[in-house]
Design a protein that fits this description.
five-stranded mixed β-sheet; 8 helices; about 15% strand
């Protein structure tokens, strides 16, 4: 604990951040080698099954790695978030959705309200959050349905939501819970709000309009809360 009641010691944070940076390359290499082994025609079926299981475990580890790295830098982004047009994250969304929804018969239906104001955001973290939201919607969506993505002005906020049409109550597995926590961290670290509903499935982020100070007052607020407790959220 820091003297002012913070949830971490800054020297420890710096050490952990350096350690996380040194882990990134080995994890990337391990993922690449697993993929090569899986796609090698000489790999027998028994070995392939073991590699698939190892790949699933590695995917969870990489998600936890990304979340931990995000948590370690929560204090640095909100001050740098600036007024930007939402086109910077909405224009690439259809192409991102095509890649994420590949192999399913789900489609993305983007519904953007006219005359959206500029918002205060970190573009990279917002795109990461939207990608994780899409992956959650993919898991919840019914075959042949659409993932609705309404973009609307909500008072001093602009909201981007993902809604899976016809989805029933969603039970999150470990990987989905990590993905949900990572999306939340990406949003809250820049002064936004995050909400999740399992029944019906809906996940949304809210970013403060650039001409208001709402983000400074409401940073970290979770509209509606998470549907399940977050097991690896930072202490407050």
């Amino acid at each position: 604990m820091t003297e002012g009641g913070g949830w971490r010691d800054e020297s420890l944070t710096a050490t952990l951040r350096d350690g996380m940076h040194s882990m990134a390359q080995p994890l990337t290499r391990l993922q690449a080698r697993l993929y090569l082994a899986l796609t090698n025609e000489g790999t027998n079926e028994g070995t392939r099954e073991l590699l698939v299981e190892a790949g699933a475990d590695l995917d969870r580890l990489c998600l936890l790695f990304a979340l931990t790295r995000q948590v370690l830098s929560l204090d640095s982004t909100a001050a740098r978030s600036s007024g930007e047009a939402l086109a910077g994250v909405l224009d690439p969304l259809p192409m991102d959705a095509e890649a994420i929804l590949a192999g399913t018969d789900l489609t993305l239906e983007l519904r953007v309200e006219r005359s959206l104001p500029a918002v205060r955001m970190d573009r990279g973290r917002t795109r990461e959050a939207l990608s994780d939201m899409l992956r959650l919607a993919r898991a919840a969506g019914r075959p042949g349905s659409a993932v609705l993505c309404p973009v609307t002005v909500q008072g001093e906020w602009v909201e981007i939501a993902m809604e899976a049409q016809g989805a029933e109550a969603v039970v999150l597995d470990e990987t989905a819970r990590l993905r949900l926590a990572l999306a939340r961290a990406n949003v809250e670290s820049q002064g936004g709000c995050f909400c999740y509903s399992a029944a019906p499935f809906r996940v949304a982020l809210r970013l403060p309009r650039a001409e208001t100070e709402t983000g400074a007052r409401g940073a970290g607020k979770v509209e509606g809360g998470l549907g399940a407790p977050d097991p690896i959220a930072p202490e407050r």
